[in-house]
Write a structure and sequence with these properties.
The chain is an alpha+beta fold and 264 residues long. The protein has one domain: Alpha-Beta Complex (Dipeptide-binding Protein, domain 1). The strands form three sheets. A five-stranded antiparallel beta sheet has the order 1-5-6-8-7, covered by helices on one side. It starts with 6 loop residues before the first helix and ends with a strand.
Length: 264
């Protein structure tokens, strides 16, 4: 029997649609300061669309590494398990794992204040170190957790990876690093103004993954090595089925639905 998507899942569908639009339009200029909940630019999104039905079955070739998930089935599951710093709610960028943020006057520094008392499914705390571990994995091909994935969303939305130069010897990526301010605060520096920076972070590829899972061999391919902060936790993953159960300490209200998908 098919079930309708929960509000969180509906939000993921909207986020995915918007992320695909961003991929097409690229990054823009301009900029300015802002605070959490009032970003410089709010995306346009069909926030009132009807919830999409969940399918009864999914592809058995799921990729549950958000940074490298590209097919619809993988993205659907990713949206139930993981979350990013920000998301889309009612057509605007909204706090998620970051409960607020401040943008510098020159538009190059973004200070994110992380939501306190949030844990990953494996019990690891969400803190500055966890966020930094994910950004460094995406950006640096030499990072031990980067692996062999293409990281297509990062390459498309942020222009390139650490050390890559264009023909004018400028850094391809406008991401210029991330640093820890304190346990619940990170500062992200851009080398060029990007007024779509917050909107880009809505893309499911930039979901924050437990550092403990990132350090595990075969991350995102087996049970026990998939750990986000989302409302649902991966309870079972076999050759024929996948079961998602409610995360019983979810920070934003524990859901009631359990989802079981046949894999084929």
């Amino acid at each position: 029997m098919k079930k309708s998507l929960s509000p969180l899942s509906t939000l993921f569908v909207l986020s995915t649609i918007f992320a695909l639009l961003l991929t097409a339009c690229g990054s823009g200029g301009g900029g300015g300061g802002g605070e959490g909940g009032s970003p410089t630019e709010s995306p346009s999104s069909p926030a009132t669309q009807e919830p999409a039905p969940l399918p009864d079955s999914l592809s058995k070739d799921l990729v549950l590494d958000p940074a490298n998930a590209t097919d619809a089935d993988s993205l659907l599951v990713v949206g139930l398990i993981y979350e990013g710093l920000v998301s889309i709610q009612s057509g605007a960028i909204a706090p998620t794992l970051a409960e607020s943020w401040v943008v510098s006057d020159d538009g190059l520094d973004y200070i994110f204040n992380l939501r306190p008392n949030v844990t990953f499914h494996d019990g690891t705390p969400v803190n500055a170190d966890a966020v930094i571990a994910n950004f460094e994995r995406w950006f640096d091909k030499d990072n031990a957790t980067h692996g062999s994935g293409e990281f297509a969303a990062w390459a498309s939305l942020f222009g390139g990876f650490k050390g890559e130069k264009d023909d004018a010897d400028h850094n391809k990526s406008n991401f210029d690093g991330i640093e820890k301010v304190d346990d619940l605060t990170v500062l992200i520096h851009l080398s060029r103004i990007d007024d779509k920076f917050l909107a880009k972070l809505v893309n499911p590829a930039f979901s924050i993954v437990s550092p403990a899972a990132l350090s595990a061999e075969f991350f995102g391919t087996s049970l026990g090595k998939v750990s986000g902060t989302g409302a649902h936790i991966l309870a079972s993953w076999t050759d024929t089925s996948l079961i998602l159960e409610p995360f019983n300490v979810y920070w934003n209200g524990i859901p009631s639905d359990t989802f079981e998908f046949q894999l084929k």
